[in-house]
Design a protein that fits this description.
This is Restriction endonuclease. By secondary structure, the chain is an alpha/beta fold. The chain has helices spanning about 5-15, 30-50, 120-130, 160-170, 190-195, 210-230; strands at about 20, 50-55, 65, 85-90, 95-105, 110-120, 145-150, 180-185, 200-205. The protein is globular, with a radius of gyration of 17 Å.
Length: about 230
């Protein structure tokens, strides 16, 4: 089964709530909707762990009425559009930010793309404050709490090459970063590779709004990450 754009958009809108609308529509690319859907699962899991959620755009405007999603990887400080992020607040802990489609710096200094990332709010704010056109300051992977690689494909597709690429990415992200590879289909070859080659990342396949068990697996994994953050 493959989720429709309508299903994905409904779940995104439900999580964001009536006060803020997604910039995506039913005609948006399914991959963009899938990334936004996984962001919504991140926010839901944080709320389950007692967090409050608020929203801000790159211009520091609080409570925007539209959540503007990136539809291609970009700089966290880019003001090309009023890109929006979520602020995740746990009692007595430094705030976090959740973003879609940002570039981060690996331990080698090489830039990588994070489909969904949760990072220190202070790190994100410093990147925005210190950046200027032509000189971008990017988040360090040591300040990334979790990074999700999101893959949305037709049922007959193979994810083997994407799994290989993500295993390479994992090796350059900080050991502090919780790494997830989440996709919407079943891919036996990719799953065997992920299971055998990398214990540093967690993965879940066949994730879409109607796949209750797999969605719960994702939420439980994310809750474990946030639970660890609260205890740190």
């Amino acid at each position: 089964m493959i989720a429709s754009n309508v299903d994905l958009l409904n779940e995104i809108s439900l999580q964001l709530g009536y006060a803020i609308n997604p910039s995506l529509t039913v005609t948006s690319d399914p991959s963009d909707l899938f990334e936004a859907y996984l962001l919504s699962l991140v926010l839901r899991s944080a709320e389950r762990e007692g967090a409050s959620i608020s929203y801000e755009d790159v211009n520091a405007s609080r409570n925007p009425t539209t959540f503007v999603f990136r539809t291609s990887p970009g700089q966290i400080a880019s003001k090309r559009h009023p890109y929006t992020h979520a602020i995740i607040s746990f009692p007595d802990k430094p705030d976090l930010e959740a973003h879609v489609g940002i570039k981060v710096s690996g331990t080698s200094g090489v830039l990588h793309e994070c489909d969904v990332a949760v990072l220190s709010r202070e790190e994100a704010r410093q990147c925005r404050y210190r950046s200027r056109p032509g000189y971008w300051v990017v988040p360090r992977s040591s300040e990334i709490l979790l990074a999700i690689e999101c893959k949305f494909y037709a049922p007959s597709s193979s994810l083997l090459d994407e799994a290989r690429s993500f295993i390479g990415l994992v090796s350059d992200l900080s050991h502090k970063t919780n790494k997830y590879f989440i996709f919407n289909i079943s891919s036996g070859s990719a799953e065997r590779l992920l299971e055998k080659k990398s214990k540093a990342l967690k993965w879940v396949g066949e994730v879409f709004p109607a796949s209750g068990i797999e969605v719960e697996r994702v939420l439980n994994l994310l809750q474990t990450t946030f639970r660890g953050y609260k205890k740190s």
